[in-house]
Amino acid sequence: MLRISQIKIPADDEKTSIENKICDALHVSSDKIINWKISRRSIEARRHEKLSFVYSVDVEVKNEAPIIKKNRNKNVSNVKNIKYKFDDTGNIQYGDKHCKYRPVIIGSGPAGLFAAYILAKHGYRPLVLERGECLEKRKTTVEDFWNGQKLNPNSNVQFGEGGAGTFSDGKLNTGVKDKEGRIAYILDTFVKFGAGEEIRYDSKPHVGTDILFEVVRNMRNDI
What we know:
Shape: flat
Structural class: alpha+beta
Radius of gyration: 22 Å
């Protein structure tokens, strides 16, 4: 797969398509393109330039080798499509696997939620212990506190299903390099359970608090 970076399209330009830019960068016709997807999108807003969207795009093309060999564009490179794979080293006794006890997860914040989700997907039947309330009750408790009622020390903005991030607009910034595909897996999972497709590629993605409530609840129900 090829990655083309620094594809700039002015925000007020409705005619220029990303696919046209791909063809220009690779010097190919559109019939050579099998598939493409946005891997990253940011905004270029320097003082002396037009407001533009800047894209990095992953492209699958026919006869890739000769295309990359002839291409001299420094913004075109080979890239591996890395997918996260759960390292199933345990033994479970449910079905055809073996494990003496069900795994226990303390807390249903982001880490606990994803640990439970992945373990459940692989048949481990995790038991999740959470000091706070489920999301529906927690939301009401938090709103009551904001309206002047007494603080519940076990279920508030910090504690409860979904963790502290549930009331922080669901910002998803990270500087960690995704060598094992973990970040992409997390974003794909959020999209699967109701988040917007754009969080997969926006440079500063956020789910949004209202949507995050639905995402967390959908994940819990699936687990």
